[in-house]
Amino acid sequence: MGKHARFSVFWDEGYVRQTQRPLTCLAFILLPLAAYHACTLRYGTDLLAPRDVARLLRYFGATANVLPPLMIVVVLLLQHVVHRHRWRVQPAVLAGMLAESALWVVPLFSLNYLTSRLLLAAGAAPHPAPWLQQVLQALGAGIYEEFIFRLVFLSLMLLLLVDLLELRRDLAAVGAVVLGAILFSLYHFSAGQLTGPAPFPWGHFVFRTLAGIYLGGLYVCRGFGIAVGSHAFWNLCVAWVNA
Predict the structure, then answer these.
(1) Within a 10 A sphere around the Cβ of 232, how many other Cβ atoms?
(2) Which of 232, 1, 23 is nearest to 135 (CA)?
(3) SS3 181
(4) CA geometry: angle at 72 spanning 165 and 212, to 5°?
(5) Among 228, 173, 195, 186, which residue's Cα sits nearest to residue 30?
(6) Treating both helix axes as pointing N-terminal to C-terminal, what angle do 22-43 and 91-104 enclose, rounded to 10 degrees?
(7) Quick check: 6 and 92 in contact, CB under 8 A?
(8) Quick one: DSSP state of residue 13?
């Protein structure tokens, strides 16, 4: 067997490029996405992101419970078709994405430590849900929040700023990532915290905004799958600490 055949995962257009392909990203998130929705059938869910995606679909008359995950699948498949990538996914690439996602979590620990020390941000409250439910909720949050605030939001912002307003793509990408990170952070707070009756947790806001910028950078540089994986790994670590 030739050297190129043995290490085709690195020779066939490269690992980095393959991890950014929509079909590869879909294969990477498909099992946790299915597991999360199977969990919701038993335990229900209190996650905001999938609930809001379902609400948006209901606004247009689409009410089936299967539609939110199906929308993610369809969007990634359409991206794959538009870019005319090859219809092949290599297991070695998926294994590399899993390991890489775990490594990209490490800077988030440092970021959390620094913001906690500087801004006296309190730790997350323990979650009363069963451990398995916490794990699957962590996966679901990683997938849906990255879908909303990175894949959809950044794509729409770049369409507006670059294609319509003809701004420089690099400046538009930075602005879109920062704005998306601020919205991502605010999305996690209650109406009372946002409007004034309850104290606003500035420490958590700063950390989540910086984490959103970091995940947005991962999305731009490494693709949707790695951003989802890193976000999900972070949620799993938080669930484990809270347990």
Answers:
(1) 25
(2) 232
(3) helix
(4) 60
(5) 228
(6) 70
(7) no
(8) S
Check the CA dihedral 226-168-157-178 and report its sign: positive
Angle at 146 between CA 62 and CA 112, to 5 degrees: 145
Ordered by start, the domain boundaries in the chain are: 10-83+90-242
What is the distance between the alpha carbons of residues 23 and 76, in angstroms, rounded to a whole number?
7
Each residue of 14-27: b (16+ CB within 10 Å) or e?
A: ebeebbbbbbbbbb
213: Cβ contacts below 8 Å, ≥ 6 apart: 177, 178, 181
| pLDDT tens, N- to C-terminus, the chain (243 residues) | 444 444 444 444 689 999 999 999 999 999 999 999 988 888 777 788 888 888 888 887 777 778 899 999 999 999 999 988 889 999 999 999 999 999 999 999 999 988 887 765 544 455 566 777 888 889 999 999 999 999 999 999 999 999 999 899 999 999 999 999 999 999 998 888 888 777 888 888 999 999 999 999 999 999 999 999 999 999 999 888 876
Question: Do 37 and 87 form a contact (C-beta atoms < 8 A)?
Answer: no
Count Cα atoms within 13 angstroms, Cβ side, for 207: 25
Cα(228)–Cα(12) distance, integer angstroms:
24
| Spatial CA neighbour of 81 closest among 144, 21, 153, 148 | 21
Q: Do 25 and 31 form a contact (C-beta atoms < 8 A)?
A: no
